[in-house]
Amino acid sequence: MANETKITASSSDSEVDPRDLTYQGHVKSIRLVDSARVGLTALALLCGLTILGTSGDALMVYNSTSVSPNFQLPLWPRHFDLRPSVALVVGSVIVVLTNIVSLVFSKVKMLRNGTSLHTPLTFAAPFVGFVAVMISMIFFYAVNASTTVDTVQSWSCQWESVSMQMKPHFGAICKETKTALYLSIILIPVEAFVLSLAGYQMMLERKAAGAAHVRKGSPALS
């Protein structure tokens, strides 16, 4: 009889409260989603830095090699539109800053656990980055569609086959502007996916908080 009592007691002690399993499941999902979000945020940051470097260098080369239209040997056309390149630079700066802030608040434990800004920033950072890259791309294509006014990309790619011993190396500038453009296109779905993961993570965190509240109020765990 005593042995039966011990077996019954040990079996009841080994039972797992389903509320514990629910909470642990939410925590595991949050960790997986957070890891994916942080990884894609790092990828978006690398894309933003590359766009900033290539488009910014193209603008610097233009500024250093453009001359007054009064001279007889202009390297760039008289009517020129820098706005597409400026839009890529501005958009990439915003993407870089927002993703740096997001990564800092995600990886630094003191900021992640010691402030209430982490959860809002998890969603706000990719949202701002997505809007910035979308606006820069819309503006780029709207201006670059002109057939009467050249841009850094259209002009440099038109003369990319010309061999030059000094700046501007039109072939290199053409490659830089194309790289910035293609990475900006890639950055749109990356930021959109990060935004989706951030929203899903916020939903999981709310569910985990609710499960933790029920778990703490459980008589079996008190």
From TrEMBL:
It comes from the Eukaryota. The chain crosses the membrane at residues 38-62, 82-105, 117-143, 180-200. This is Uncharacterized protein. Keywords: Membrane, Transmembrane, Transmembrane helix.
